[in-house]
Structure formats: C-alpha cells, structure tokens
Design goal:
This protein is mostly helical. 76% of the residues lie in helices and 0% in strands. It has 6 helices and no strands. It is a multi-pass membrane protein.
C-alpha cells in the first residue's frame, strides 16, 4: 500500500462518515457543517487521484456556493437551529427509511456487480482540454439549470421571510 492509497482511504473514510453524520443529525446547521466536511474531503480524494481541476471545482462550487446557500437559506427562513419537535421523526419512520436505503444500496451494488463483475475497467484520464470541452459544450445547459434551481431556492427563502406564522415581518 502506497502513501497515496493510505491517504485516499483516510479521506474516503472521513467523507463517508461525515456523509452519514450529515443525514443522521437532527440539527440543520450541524448537517450543513457535516456536508461541508464531506465535500471538502471528497475534494481531497480528487486531489489524490490527480484530478486537480475537478478538486478545485468541487471546492468552489459545492463547498463555496452550495453549502453557503444552504446556510444562508437556513438563516433567512428562521429554521430552528437546535432540536425541534416539529421535525422529529418517530422510530418507526426511521426504521422504514433505513430498510428502504439498505434495499436501494443493495440494488445498486447488485447492478454494479453484475454489470462489471470481476473485470477490470480501464480509465482514460483525459486532459483538461477534453474536460473543458465537455463542461462548456455538452454539459453547459445542466449547469445553467442548476444555477437557476439554486437561484429559485434563494428567492423562495427570501419570499418565506414575509410569510411567518405571526402574521407579518419585522
């Protein structure tokens, strides 16, 4: 095992654990912070694999923009920062979600195992020019749609400020 393998394994483990913590925590701000850690360590995984451009995009777009947007929306909508009885899910609901997620994970594993089996798949790293041609050519519209969705979420958060239960805005 090389140093790169050990570093990739450590970063991958931290990313997986922080992703699980992000979806299992009951506090919204903590979930956003766990998500930040998950995406940052995922960017480190990209660096270890030699994809510096993808790592930079991961940091700028996801950590720098999406997580900030989530925290901004939480602050604007006055969502409960701590534990809230309104958002608590009973144990039966959690067990159903656990069974469904385990079944989905098993289905994905079975699909990939049957699709690839034990054969090794060759990866062509490509170049930054090919990546740029794909990003700004074929995948330009999905990125534009994503930016519109994020803008709609921000506008929705701003619109929700004035529609509080107490009848007005301060």
């Amino acid at each position: 095992m090389t140093v790169h393998d050990a570093l990739f394994s450590c970063l991958g483990l931290i990313s997986a654990v922080s992703a699980v913590c992000a979806v299992t925590t009951r506090q919204l701000v903590h979930a956003a912070l766990w998500l930040t850690l998950c995406m940052t360590t995922l960017s480190g995984c990209y660096l270890v694999l030699g994809a510096e451009l993808v790592a930079l995009v991961q940091l700028l777009v996801y950590v720098g923009a999406v997580v900030v947007l989530v925290l901004f929306a939480v602050m604007l909508t006055r969502a409960p920062i701590g534990k809230s009885a309104d958002h608590d899910v009973p144990m039966a609901g959690r067990m159903v979600a656990l069974v469904i997620s385990a079944a989905t994970g098993g289905l994905l594993f079975a699909a990939f195992a049957t699709a690839f089996g034990s054969q090794q798949v060759g990866l062509d790293g490509g170049t930054n020019a090919n990546l740029a041609a794909n990003l700004f050519g074929r995948f330009a519209w999905p990125f534009e749609v994503l930016s519109l969705v994020l803008l709609a979420a921000l506008v929705g958060a701003l619109a929700m400020i004035g529609t509080r239960k107490d009848g007005g805005s301060k």
